[in-house]
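Dock zinc ion; give full complex structure.
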Amino acid sequence: MTSALIVIDVQNDFCPGGALAVSGGNDIVTGINALMDDFSTVILTQDWHPAGHSSFASSHPGQAPMDLITMPYGPQVLWPDHCVQGTAGAAFHPDLRTDGDLIIRKGYNPAIDSYSAFFENDQTTPTGLEGYLKSRGITRLTMVGLALDFCVNYSAVDAARLGFDVTVREDLTRAIDMNGSRDAALTAMQDAGARIAV
Ligand code: VGL
Ligand code: ZN
């Protein structure tokens, strides 16, 4: 089986000091860099929002970050402005190796958020990653990165549903963990058939 490492959203805004900082987000960089040596295919994802994105609380008068609203495609957590295209916050962590094969950007549609590396949050608009992997004969995926309970979770669940053999290296992730979202994510990923490894 041909394998790929998928490195999710290891960007400045998800690391301490960033706009949507995940506690300990920077601690996983060294381990991820080392793990890249074990894979012939490495794919990085990058959360990449236009200014004024509909997932930002600032785009919804009267709403605050972490509020939950209903969008035409379903429930959506509202976030602080983060990973705005071309800003320092959207850049990869400066120590992250970026010599991978493919960088896939997501969340650029102003009206739809995109946690998953495979589909936007409408769960139907593809990013193209499935085709990239399948056309290259890749069947097995290892996932690491940020945040465990959002973008890693949605990516792992979608990948398992698409038939990939998925392992999440939990030690190389960190979670936002709001309202039990970390535990819920671990359950969701396992229920979808992903393996949680440390
Ligand atoms: C993410 C919230 C908003 C993530 C991205 O990378 O997990 N979370 N945008
Ligand atoms: Zn985002």
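Observed: The two ends are 21 Å apart (CA to CA).
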